[in-house]
Amino acid sequence: MVMNSARPRTVAVATPGGRYDILIGSGLLQDASSWADLPASSQAVIVSNATVDALYGDDLAASLASRHRQVSRVLLPEGEAHKTWDSLNRIFDHLLAHACDRKTVLYALGGGVIGDMTGFAAATYMRGVPFVQVPTTLLAQVDSSVGGKTAINHPLGKNMIGAFYQPARVVCDLGTLASLPARELSAGLAEVIKYGPIFDMAFLDWIEDHMVALRAGDAEALAHAVQRSCEIKAEVVGQDERESGLRAILNFGHTFGHAIEAGQGYGAWLHGEAVGCGMVLAAALSAELGLVPGAFVERLTRLVQAAGLPTQAPAMPDERWLELMRVDKKAEAGAIRFVLIDPPGRASLRSAPDDQVLRVIRRHSVPVASAA
Amino acid sequence: MVMNSARPRTVAVATPGGRYDILIGSGLLQDASSWADLPASSQAVIVSNATVDALYGDDLAASLASRHRQVSRVLLPEGEAHKTWDSLNRIFDHLLAHACDRKTVLYALGGGVIGDMTGFAAATYMRGVPFVQVPTTLLAQVDSSVGGKTAINHPLGKNMIGAFYQPARVVCDLGTLASLPARELSAGLAEVIKYGPIFDMAFLDWIEDHMVALRAGDAEALAHAVQRSCEIKAEVVGQDERESGLRAILNFGHTFGHAIEAGQGYGAWLHGEAVGCGMVLAAALSAELGLVPGAFVERLTRLVQAAGLPTQAPAMPDERWLELMRVDKKAEAGAIRFVLIDPPGRASLRSAPDDQVLRVIRRHSVPVASAA
User: Fold this and answer.
1) Beta-carbon neighbour count of residue B356 at 10 Å?
2) pLDDT band at A158 (very low <50, low <70, confident <90, very high)
3) CB of A277 closer than 8 Å to CB of A363
4) Is B94 an annotated catalytic residue?
């Protein structure tokens, strides 16, 4: 993948829980000035996995050497299936074995799984230490590193155990996207696309116009996609840190998506793939309820396809779908709630009759008969 | 233990993280009005252990029946040794198995271990649900249920994993203290005594005058002890929720105390027993450094003894003491820090030379030669 260089930019995020900057640019990870004005501490711990550490661990450690007397690293097993207490406990074991005090700064170097677990470890180690997000996937840069949601999975549900905890800074180095497999870049584009239907249809136009450049790894196009996605997310989160209302719209596609992920076993589908497909289902449910025209569903389906993402859900029995969606955190008193589009560019949280939900699922999934 | 009845009283607590009331009185647990104006939810979950549940579980469930459609219970294994991830996970398993949503209210019915774990579960289940403290030990009523500290232990350190999370209310029913073993009542008195040296010498006078009544279970004396302790703690916590400065004084006796608890294995000494003994050591260290007169150490030692608490630390090698105290959360960059008295009625966080610390420990502990 050819990567040119993008001009640096900053998105400021203000929430009741704290304010911080998102830095977006090329080569930020190697640049010591990316860490200027962060909390001082003698110890720093980089949390990563073996793949990402091999690519960027040394660069980050070198770049942090002038700020912290001791920089150590802890590597976690890779993938959503390992977003568990056991992995989290590896961080705690490391911190305690190194006698890390409550000023120690944690650096999350990796994708959403690393970010979520490092953030939750930072939120709970000695009841809270500072942490910095250094997201190395497009998905993490546009979504999971913004908004202060941290969590681990429980066998009965994704992200069920966690905390709202804001990073001290987010450093999005576009250079790290050059090493990203095409499948993961596509998965990240799902969360970029998401911001169109729920908030900004002009951004959806821009994404359609730049999909080829984005998939080719054009740095300037990626920089704009990351910036605009972070701006929208920051605006939404700034109004509603604790997800009492507006923030829930960021979960467009996620009720169906989480059911796909959990139903297939974490890791079988990438989160972004499940969300891409989930957005098609959520748009189709919006159309089923008469909230958007069918043409909108077709347009979104084409764009999800153009991003290299699946638009057809896997085969699962009706009861399994309903059971998996009922444990979603947005559910209330057992009623499944969906983020629906009404009209394009605006979204809200609603319930829908089971029979209409199942009809939409059937129309957009692999027939049960052909399931493996 | 004979218990008369005490007039009800309320202590209001305001912190940046939220405001809530502490209700103190006799028979509050059976009184539905104790729960008035709490967050509404269809589901409530009582977290307790088998001993406490057998005594008060039915009363609490009955008293909550008018507020919540479904009241279920989850029982955890008893004791500090079980303040672990495994116990915490029992709560999560229960919540998910019962499809509890993010409005579910958790009620912590028990002592500090139940309160700490229920609070941490509430802080992290779906990133935060409301919870109510119903402390049934004196220690929990005067200390652990106030201030929003929640945590579990890690094999390498006590309360290392946790969160600051405020309850929606604290209901201190003095009637529950009637069933408390004398040893646990004494342990609770350690934390009552604590508030004297660090904040209010007039309260220390009062405790000396009422020690017999307190140990005899006099409800009016206990009510005053709980009220004044909560008032002092609320004042301190209100000024410093996150323990950046003033709040640390509440840990008077805890640096030594935690080392005793961890060194002897959690559960061998009750927390209050370790704190009682730890206060004697911390006062002696204050005297060793010339901050208080020797007579103050003798006075505190007599009061700790009168409360039925140990004043002599267990035998441990010097290196073990230092190692255990270095993992204390107050330590910074490897330097152990103690809450020292200077003068009586005021406290601050300081370091001390290892040789003076060890001299004080030797003077106030069982000789190593006679260790089992």
Assistant:
1) 12
2) confident
3) no
4) no
Same domain, A165 and A238: no
Domain count, chain B: 2
Q: Are residues B354 and B258 in the same domain?
A: yes
> Does residue B59 surpass a pLDDT of 90?
yes
- Chain-centroid distance of CA A288 in Å reads 28
Nearest to B101 among A92, A103, A332 (CB): A332
Residue B59 lies in a domain: yes
Tell me, yes or no, whether B106 and B220 share the same domain. Answer: no
The reply to whether A243 belongs to the active site is yes
Residue B320 has pLDDT above 70, yes or no: yes
Does residue B298 fall inside a structural domain? yes
Annotated catalytic, B233? yes
Residue B1: pLDDT over 60? no
Task: Please tell me whether residues B237 and B364 are part of one structural domain.
Answer: yes
Q: For position B66, what pLDDT does the model report?
A: 87
Residues B204, B152 share a domain:
no
Name the more confident of A266 and B296: B296
This complex has an ipTM of 0.85
Residue B242: pLDDT band by 50, 70, 90 thresholds? low
Q: What is the pLDDT of residue A146?
A: 81
User: Known binder of ligand: residue A152?
Assistant: no
Task: Find the domain containing A304 and state its range.
Answer: 182-370
Q: What is the largest CA-CA distance in chain B?
A: 61
Residue B154 in tokens: 């890690």
Instruction: Please give the residue that has the higher pLDDT: either A248 or B105.
Output: B105
User: What residues are paired with B28 via a beta bridge?
Assistant: none
In the set B49, B94, B251, B364, the catalytic residue is B251
Cβ neighbours of A127 in B, within 8 Å: 149-151, 162-164, 243, 329
Which of the following is catalytic: A153, A169, A191, A329? Answer: A191
Q: Which residues pair with A124 in a beta bridge?
A: none
pLDDT confidence band for B7 (50 / 70 / 90): confident
Task: Report the DSSP pairing between strands A105-110 and A43-48.
Answer: parallel
Give the rounded distance of the alpha carbon of B155 from its chain centre: 20
Query: Chain B: nearest CA to A274, how far in angstroms?
Result: 21
For residue B372, the model assigns a pLDDT of 45
Q: Quick check: is A127 catalytic?
A: yes
Q: Please say if A288 is a catalytic residue.
A: no
**Catalytic-labelled residue, pool A231, A243, A273, A288:** A243
CA distances to A103, A285, B9 from A129, rounded to whole Å, are: 6, 42, 37
Instruction: Please tell me the predicted confidence (pLDDT) of residue A372.
Output: 45
Which of B154, B179, B204 is where one domain is finished? B179
What letter would DSSP give residue B314?
Answer: P
Q: Give tens-digit pLDDT for B139-176.
A: 999 987 788 899 999 988 888 999 999 999 999 999 99
Same domain, A59 and A158: yes
A39 in reach of chain B (CB within 8 A):
no
Q: Give CA A156 to chain center in angstroms.
A: 20
Q: CB of A144 within 8 A of CB of A254?
A: no
Same domain, B237 and B122: no
Q: Quickly state the pLDDT bin for B262 (edges 50, 70, 90).
A: confident
Res. A369: pLDDT tops 70: no
Is residue A224 domain-resident? yes
CB B256 within 8 A of CB B325: yes
Single out the residue in B141, B160, B179 at which a domain terminates. B179
CA distance B170 to B121: 17
A241 lies in some domain: yes
Nearest chain A Cα distance for residue B129, angstroms: 11
Closest CA of chain A from B35, distance in Å:
21
Q: What is the pLDDT of residue A288?
A: 97
Q: Are residues B113 and B224 in the same domain?
A: no
- Interchain contact B239–A (C-beta under 8 A): no
